[in-house]
Task: structure prediction
Amino acid sequence: MKIETLNIADIRASSFNPRITLEKGSREYEAIAASIREFGFVEPLVVNSHNMCCLGGHQRLSVLKDMGVESVECVMVEEPDQAREKALCVALNRIKGEWDMDMLAALLQDKAVFSLPTGFEEGEVDLERMLEDVEPPELSEEEPEEAEEPAGPEGTTVVKIGNFKFKITISEYQGMLNTIRDAGIFDSKAISDEIKRRILNG
Result:
């Protein structure tokens, strides 16, 4: 493995990077920034020395630039073939191991561990464990959309809260929204947080 220290200004973001660009202040952005501040930069970027394109670590690169970091250690690869370069970029962003949710929950129950920036929020892993059998989650920070009344037997609707997606019946959904609004909660984020709290508390 070849590691070099590069000037951040010399590293180019790949035009074909499949990862979304994080907005400053978003949960993911702040989690990366907090981790770097606490532990330092411990996961090098992957850069193609053929064209100085970043193939792995675009989000970290963005955060580092905003933090004013001028140089960073990078794993260097030499890949002149564009198709192979793109495939490596996808692989670096896609090939990840799955969590052992019970082991992860046990780790995060350690207050000394949870007090440090891990990227997880309180209760998040418990909710993940409850939803292990549902479809993969979609990211959304928007308030759940109003569900339409079904013409036949009662159906279900998918409610997306942050990183989570779960199914509930139409009547349960409408009832939950009504009681939340009756309590004087109308802000979309506050509604999402309240739904998440109710799911966690059963």
Q: What stands out?
A: Residues 129-140 have pLDDT under 50 and may be disordered.
